[in-house]
Protein: Phosphoserine phosphatase
Amino acid sequence: MNLILQGLTVQRHIVEQIAGLARPRSIVAIGDHAYRCVDVSYNDEVKSQIDMAAWAAKLDYAFMERSRVLSDFKLVAMDMDSTLITIECIDEIADMQGLKPQVAEITEAAMRGEIEFKESLTRRVALLKGLDASALQRVYDERLTLSLGAEKMLAGIQAAGMKTLLVSGGFTFFTDRMKQRLNLDYTHSNQLEIVDGKLTGQVIGGIVDGEEKKATVERVCKELNISPQQAIVMGDGANDLQMMRIAGLSVAFRAKPVVRQQANIALNFVGLDGVLNLFHS
Structure:
């Protein structure tokens, strides 16, 4: 096994201290703020110690089999809100109605897995009834920001010939624009109903919940003639867990504790491009 340690700022002596818990054969710098610790000893106790030490030092860590390379994977599937982008679009739309606290509270509960996603989305969208549809463009123009490292990560995986899927419990208004802006291959999300320029408080068709996200990853893999084991799946909330479980590598990005605990890798401090450091080039 190799141990990857990375952070927004990294001091080598701290890396050596933490890596020492896993007794590496050597430590190699693989970027300005990332190190690969080669041939480490790995067991639950070591992982637990590294987990605590890395968290305290604000570093992300990953134990990776030495043989794993980026070309093992053919697809990267990403959640949108709070993963590819920094905001929860529905919370920002609600802010235009003066309802952000009520909607954000339901969003948080759903992401922690305390409310079933379909119910939470139905309740939140209903609160938007009567809002002028121009609010969506305002959120896109004024509030939507890509997550740290998103463009660098996408450039890296697209250069490696991998396909991209944005699968979201959010809305087509935003995923369509992300697809065009970032040259993504596939998107799937919920469609807000708009009548006479106003939101009706309803979505059109089925709701993209955790089950549908998983089914979407499976469907795209089938179309690409690959196994879900050849997919990297990234998310932050409880409704991402089902698609993360079928992936060859699951990545929790700035995620809720329930997601961090179940993912293969957690990126708590670095940007999305931290994924690229996990593999031998």
About this structure: The CA atoms of residues 120 and 274 lie 31 Å apart. DSSP finds eleven helices and eleven strands in the chain. The radius of gyration is 20 Å. Residues 1-67 form a domain with the Alpha-Beta Plaits fold (CATH 3.30.70).
